[in-house]
Known about the structure:
This protein is an alpha/beta fold. The chain has ten helices and ten strands. It folds into two domains: 6-202, 2-enoyl-CoA Hydratase, Chain A, domain 1, CATH 3.90.226.10; 206-253, Lyase 2-enoyl-coa Hydratase, Chain  A, domain 2 (Orthogonal Bundle). The protein has a six-stranded mixed sheet, sandwiched between helices. Helix 3 crosses helix 4, helix 4 (147-155) packs across helix 5 and helix 8 packs antiparallel against helix 9. The protein is globular and about 60 Å long. The two termini are 28 Å apart.
Amino acid sequence: MGFETIEFKKSETNEYVGVLTINRPKALNALNSQVIDELEGFRDEIAGTDLRVIVVTGSGEKSFVAGADIKEMKNHSAEDALRMARRGQGVFGLLSGMGKTMVAAVNGFALGGGMELALACDVIFASEKAKFGLPEVSLGLIPGYGGTQRLARNIGVSKAKYFALSGDIFSASQAYEMGLVSKVFAPEELMPGAMKFADTVASRAPLAVAKAKMAIEDGLSLDLKAALELEAKCFSEIFNTEDKTEGIAAFIEKRQPNFQGK
Ligand code: CAA
C-alpha cells in the first residue's frame, strides 16, 4: 500500500488482524486532507479482504491524533467547512461500515477529529497517558467529524455536553469512568492488550461478529420495539450460516470451532 500519512501492517501471528497507524508525528498525527484521502484508499484496499479486525493507533509516543489539521482550515469558507465535515464523516462512516471490527488503541492525544476517529471505532482502549477532548470550542469551532452525534449516543447527552461545551481535556481514567474507554493500560501494555482483544474477536464467527455490530448500531436509531424486531431478524439470518452449524456442533462435541466466515 503506497500511503505517506498512514501505515498498515498485518499482524505477524494472525492473518485476520492488522494495525493501521496514523503517521504524521511532526503534526501529532493531525488529520489533513491527505490523511482523509488515504484512509479512504486504505478502506478501498481492505474492504473486500478477509481481514476481520483493524487496530487503529497513532505514530510516536505522544499522540493518537490531535484533531483535524487546524492549519488547513485557516482560510476555509463555510462551504469549504461543509465539504470538509461531510468528507471526514463520510470516510469515517466507510471505515466503520466495512463490516470489520475497528479497535482504537489511543496512545496519547485524541482530540477533536482524533477523538472522533476513536468514536468511529467499535471499542476504545487507552494508555494511561492518553488524553481525550473535543477542544473545538476553544478554537471558535464545533466538532465536525461526528463528535457531537457519536459521543452523545455513546456516553449520553449530558456527558457529551461536558466534553463539547467545555473543550476540556480529560485523562484516560476520566474517559474510562465516563464509559468512553473500555480499558486503560500501562503505555507498554496498550498494543499487546489491543492485539489480544483483536485476536479474540478474530477467532469468533466473523459473520456473527459483523451482524452483532450491525444490530447494535442500526438499533440505536429505532424505538425499542422496532430495535428488538431488528435483533430477532438478525438472529434468524445468522441461522442461515455454516458457522452457526459449526459453532453449535463444536460446543456439543467439546472441541474448538473452525469458523470459515460462511
Ligand atoms: N492541526 C495541525 N497541526 C497540529 C495540530 C492540529 N490539530 N495539533 C498539533 N499540531 C502541530 C503543532 O502546530 C506543532 O507543529 P509545529 O511544530 O510546526 O509548530 C506540532 O503539531 C506539535 O504540537 P505542539 O507544539 O502544540 O505540541 P504541545 O505538546 O505543546 O501541545 C497539544 C499538544 C495540546 C495537542 C496541542 O498541539 C494542541 O492543542 N493541538 C490542537 C488540538 C485541537 O484543537 N484539536 C481539534 C482540531 S479541530 C477539529 O478536529 C475539528 C473537527 O472536529 C473536524
